[in-house]
Design a protein that fits this description.
By secondary structure, the protein is an alpha+beta fold. Helix content is about 40%, strand content about 15%.
Length: about 200
Amino acid sequence: MPPAVSTVSVRTRWRWFCRNRRGTSAIEFALLAPIFLALLGAIVETAIIFFAGQVLETVNQDAARLIATGQAQTAGDDGSHLGDATNFMLNYVCSSATRPNALADVLFDCQNGIYLDVQKYSSFQNVTINSQIDNAGNFINNMQFKPGGPCDIVVVRMFYQWPLFITGLGYDISNLTGHKRLLSATAAFKNEPYNGSCP
């Protein structure tokens, strides 16, 4: 007799458990919350990357304007010659006094993180843009600083290796090793005749 009572008791408890709806929301939340949070994080990180890319474009345009007008090729306001990339980045591109861009200061490590490549060409037809990522996913650092003279064709490019934090779950937008995304900005233009005439 006791085994029969025990069987009935187990069946009754199982039916009660199956009909009980308390805690359903908590279980559903526990199942869906990680997916929702991962998706939300991926959306936020993608938006920040696009925003950082636009800020880098602005910084690159400012640098291109300095080269196009001849400020990078001639003496600066303080009398120092800005004929090399290091001085140009330090005194103009990364200087908050000449480039009051608080967003760039927050998003980037300008002096140590932004790579500047300036090339001059004889014509727009000769301009070549090569990838700065090798087959192994490493950044190719072959930056040069050749701002050219009056009326030269110049291409200014900037690069920044943006670290990614939300990767995995089938969503990984890194294109560099170490979970990084290479941000780039490009400006192609013809220098102004800043010394009065073109050669």
